[in-house]
Design a protein that fits this description.
By secondary structure, the protein is α+β, with helices and mostly antiparallel strands. About 30% of the residues lie in helices and about 20% in strands.
Length: about 140
């Protein structure tokens, strides 16, 4: 039996860079590839996913500030939190992915404040109180 040597096609994988961003309870996994400027969030266009233009602008602000919005395609998977928290999680993930792409951008992104994770979380409710700090109304009798 003669062994056939099959020609293997070398398919070059698409090179991407990934960053994870978090804000409150929102988590975003952001991937960037070289492209034409497509911005997809959960397989939807950014403007359609975020119903306000402000949230969409917050999510894409690292690319806008560095004038790279036409050079990269962005794909993000977001879950948890509200719309504002998701937009800020995408912003952090995008900034981290850009640093993975080019470490020279780190100082610029740090100066804009895009690489700082916002540590604020909702405080837990304590027993005997109505909310985290709100005490029940005092009654004289």
């Amino acid at each position: 039996m003669a062994k056939k040597q099959e020609k293997q096609q070398s398919v070059k994988p698409i090179r991407y860079f990934e960053g994870v961003g978090r804000r409150k309870t929102a988590v975003a996994r952001v991937r960037i590839t070289k492209g034409t400027g497509n911005f997809l969030i959960n397989s939807e266009v950014s403007g359609e996913y975020f119903n306000t233009g402000f949230s969409s602008a917050v999510a894409s602000s690292p690319l806008d500030k560095l004038a790279l919005s036409e050079k990269f395609d962005v794909s993000a998977k977001v879950s948890g939190g509200g719309m504002n928290a998701q937009a800020e999680a995408v912003r952090l993930g995008l900034a981290r992915a850009l640093v993975m792409f080019d470490s020279g951008l780190k100082n610029k992104l740090r100066a804009f404040g895009f690489l700082t994770r916002d540590p604020r979380m909702v405080e837990r409710k304590k027993y005997g109180l109505k909310k985290a700090r709100r005490a029940p109304q005092w009654q004289k009798r």
